[in-house]
Sequence to fold (201 residues):
Amino acid sequence: MKTRILLITFILSGLIQVSAQDKKFNFGLKVAPAISWLSSEQSGISGDGASAKFNWGFIGACNFTDNFALVSGFNVNSLGGKLKREDTTKYSMGYRYSELQLPAIFQMRSNEIFGLKIYFQLGLAAGYLMSAKDEDGAKIPKRPLNTSWIIGSGVYVPVAGNINLLGQIKYNGGLTGIGKKKTPTHQATANFIELGLGVLF
Fold:
């Protein structure tokens, strides 16, 4: 545990120094409670409820101008929800996934308004599904690659120097199926809405 704390402290110290040297680049981190659900276009299978999740990640922004930026980094997302068979059994099963996601997001940011900067985001993301289990804890077949589209909005709150607090709401929509063929999740996509809180240096 101490080693992890020291490593995180070292990384953050380095990011702050790089950010201070060049305002074209900003770095930070976020935490985000989320609601996730599964959608399916497979015949006879449909979504059957959402679940509460928790996501976190590191943020990297390349600022082209004061108002436009390319935002990337990495996110560790928790995905899941329930799927139901639309037959006489009406059988329902919950599924849980963990994902390492690399986004590429175009960001438009306003000038300062009443001490805040409002921003809008639109982009795509590629993710690697690290684990997949059903609600009983059994491993299930998965596709390793998960692609998504992202739309979001939020605010920057300047604190001091290059340090900003940020809050955002983001929708992440799955584009590709997360399960292998002949499984209930074959044509299921993972989606979520998250409320993110973070700090940017």
User: Anything to note?
Assistant: The chain has one domain: 2-200. Helices lie at 2-21. The beta strands are 25-40, 45-47, 50-63, 68-85, 92-109, 117-134, 145-160, 163-174, 188-200. Residues 2-200 form a domain with the Porin fold (CATH 2.40.160.20).
